Predict the structure.
Amino acid sequence: MVFLSGPRQVGKSWLARELMKGFARPRYLNYDSSLDREVITSQGWASATDLLVLDELHKMPGWKGYLKGLVDTRPEHTRILVTGSARLETFRQSGDSLAGRYVHHRLFPITPAEAAWASQSRNLEHYLTRGGFPEPYLAVSDDEAGRWRRQYVDGLIREDILNFENITKLKAMNLLLELLRDRVASPLSYQSLSEDIGVAPNTIKSYLEVLEALYIIFRVTPYHRSIARSLQQRPKVYFFDTGLVRGDDGKKIENLVALSLLRAQVLAEDRDGKPRSLRYLRTKDGREVDFLTVVDQSPRLMVEVKASDRTLSPGLRYFHEHYGFAGVQLVGDLQQENEGAPLRLRRALDWLESPDVD
């Protein structure tokens, strides 16, 4: 099987239908449809089906056991594609293990590198205001994109979050989502958020896990050679939809860079299987670099993000001098680039359209 996960409305169903065109007898079934649900439950599709697409199947009770039986007994000619807006591998429902029975791929919003590859490049402001989801990205106006985003957020809250297990305080979750929009790129304090919202810090942590599972946000944790110590330090939060970020251009550019770096790493990890992570660097005395890409627990590249500062970051210099990390500083508005290794100064959009990250 192939699992295809990603945010709501990022294009999973569209991609599935495009893939179906390459098969003679494909069948698409969505668990949200009552008619399709009956077919799924009874396995009532034709035996000649050569591609079976099952959408939102993780909402089905016992879906893991169902899929295990399905893939173990399917005809040899039948391929199975399972899609969903939640991270299928994060669910802990009861059922048999699916280990060894699937390959997982993730579909992200459009990034500058993907847009450049498809000859659909836009200027930096377009990415910051529209984000990378297909509908607002391709909308004819900012007003149309704004209408889409309002409906998108409403759908996230009223459908995806409300239907997620153990979510009882929808108002608190809504407030958390709003607060996070203003706190992008800053280390989070669970205690501060709990005081602002009026729920326990552990509830804040569980709500953040839900927002991650639904591909609304992703967290970037500090890098340290001790993984346990890294997990104890405060994470930074970014949105899959850059258009949801509130604040100055610096925050929005940093969110765009975070998403682009994460997508590049996920794409490479899905391709070659090497574990990758996106971290940030911070010392106790406040020296910091926005991002560090890590492959097989080995640091690869530091990335600092600025809206307009043309002076090379002291943080980049410090970590390069002390640890030998290579680095690049991405600037939103930059006249003159400096390509000199190992620390470079680059225009943010130019670098993002062809990032040197594996």
